[in-house]
């Protein structure tokens, strides 16, 4: 009795497998490859042009192109604009990076996101890391921005391609 059930199950499985093998995979059709790629592609989120930051009790709209860098200190995120003014941003760096244009902004480490238009130069630091010098000298004195060995290649690629 048990053997007949096993034989029937085996025959049913073989038939199912036979049907499966005779079907052509959708990936074999060129037009369907495009369809799957389109299905997998996430809708592109619109990148911000400005940000509302706080300075004291004021809410100030700032154009992102005017921001030299974002940094975090004591769990507070600050944006420093091209004049050197410090503003509080009510987002964490991870959320902020998702909204920024990655052709202009680069997250160099856990603490800093920099604007390519405010980078003066970069140089080798401790043989394997990079050190960023910004165009505003007062920022260089207050913020030593170091890029790790792991992030340095992607930073070099980003800065050369944008």
Core attributes:
OB fold (Dihydrolipoamide Acetyltransferase, E2P), alpha+beta, 2 domains, three-stranded antiparallel β-sheet, 162 residues, five-stranded antiparallel β-sheet
Topology, pairings included?
Blueprint: H1 2-22, H2 30-40, E1 50-55, E2 58-63, E3 67-73, E4 76-81, E5 86-89, H3 93-99, E6 105-107, E7 112-115, E8 119-125, E9 129-134, H4 137-142, E10 145-147, H5 152-161
Antiparallel strand pairs: 1-2, 3-4, 3-7, 4-5, 6-7, 8-9, 9-10
Beginning-to-end CA distance, first to last residue: 73 Å
CATH architecture of the largest domain: Beta Barrel
Question: Count the strands?
Answer: 10
CATH fourth-tier homologous superfamily of the largest domain: LytTr DNA-binding domain
How are the strands of the biggest sheet laid out side by side?
5-4-3-7-6
**What is the CATH C level class of the largest domain, in words?**
Mainly Beta
Helix-strand topology string = HHEEEEEHEEEEHEH
Question: Which fold does the CATH topology of the largest domain refer to?
Answer: OB fold (Dihydrolipoamide Acetyltransferase, E2P)
What is the count of DSSP helices, taking H or I runs of 4+ residues?
Answer: 5
Stretches where pLDDT is under 50 for at least 5 consecutive residues are 20-34
Question: Main beta sheet, described?
Answer: 5 strands, antiparallel
- Proportion of β residues? 25-35%
- Give the proportion of residues in helices: 25-40%
Structural domain tally: 2
Counting helices, strands and paired strands, the structural category is alpha+beta
Radius of gyration, Cα only, in angstroms?
26 Å
Based on CA inertia axes, which overall geometry fits? extended
Overall pLDDT score: 81
């Amino acid at each position: 009795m048990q053997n007949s059930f096993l034989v029937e199950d085996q025959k049913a499985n073989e038939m199912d497998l036979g049907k499966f093998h005779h079907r052509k995979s959708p990936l074999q059709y060129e037009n369907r490859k495009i369809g799957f790629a389109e299905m997998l592609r996430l809708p592109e989120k619109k990148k911000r042009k400005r940000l509302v930051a706080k300075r004291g009790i004021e809410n100030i709209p700032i154009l992102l192109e005017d921001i030299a860098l974002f940094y975090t200190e004591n769990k507070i995120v600050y944006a420093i604009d091209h004049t050197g003014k410090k503003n509080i941003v009510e987002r964490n760096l991870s959320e902020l990076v998702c909204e920024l244009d990655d052709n202009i902004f680069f997250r160099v480490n856990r603490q800093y996101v920099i604007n390519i238009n405010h980078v003066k130069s970069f140089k080798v630091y401790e043989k394997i890391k990079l050190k960023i010098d910004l165009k505003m000298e007062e920022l260089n004195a207050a913020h030593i921005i170091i890029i790790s060995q792991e992030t340095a290649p992607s930073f070099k690629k980003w800065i050369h391609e944008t």
